[in-house]
Amino acid sequence: MSSLPRASELGLIGCHVCGLVCRDNDMKDAACPRCESPLHRRKHASYVRTWALLIAAFILYIPANFLPIMRTVSVGDVDDNTILSGVIELWVKGSPDLAVIVFTASIVVPMLKFFAMTTLLLSAHRRSGWAQRQRAKLYRLVELIGYWSMLDVFVVALLTALVQFGLLSLVEPLPGVVFFGLTVVLTMLASMSFDPRLIWDSRDTDD
Fold it and tell me: SS3 for 103?
């Protein structure tokens, strides 16, 4: 069974901004006719830039977990909470729904993104033909969940705005939120920098 033709073989090129499929006329400084963004076959230095952003995000994720992310003040009690202790605090104070949201957004989602992007980068570097369709779907999933990665920061901001929340009398954001926010931004930039067309570059195909 012969493989499907590649876009370059059909003389087609996709816009990285709006997704419009255009004719590839081999012209320098070609622009998308719809959004006028520059057209190029591949994202420049995609592999190196994605690795750099992903590693930086992982480094910042460490203090994001160990530094306090919020301070809860109740009657006669002041607690500085990290992400995990904040989840426990929310659960104990009678807010299990918010505890689940914070745990999912701040622990589960970042770890899944680190694992998924590392898998994509390593397989792309090896020019592996393994599960290419599944890896393409994995990349689209990473892009999709990236829009919800700031939920943890939004929850802390919401709790800060609500002076009264159940048994909690006051909530203040702490430096851990900054590191987590930077982690989210860098992982989003990493997924944006990754060129999904690298997935389809197996060893028996040309660049």
Answer: helix
Closest CA to 190 of 16, 60, 14, 52: 52
CA dihedral for 134, 138, 143, 145, sign (positive or negative): positive
Confidence of residue 199 (pLDDT cuts 50, 70, 90): confident
* Gap between the Cα atoms of 112 and 108, Å rounded: 6
The DSSP call for residue 199 is: G
CA distance to 53, 65, 179, per residue, from 60 (Å): 11, 9, 6
pTM of the model: 0.76
Residue 6 has pLDDT above 70, yes or no: no
CA 141, 146, 148, 151 torsion-angle sign: positive
- Domains of the chain, by residue range, sit at 1-41, 44-200
Neighbouring residues of 157: CB distance < 8 A, sequence distance ≥ 6: 173
- Fold of the domain spanning 44-200: Butyryl-CoA Dehydrogenase, subunit A; domain 3 (1.20.140)
Could you tell me if 185 and 60 are in contact, meaning their C-beta atoms sit under 8 angstroms apart?
Answer: no
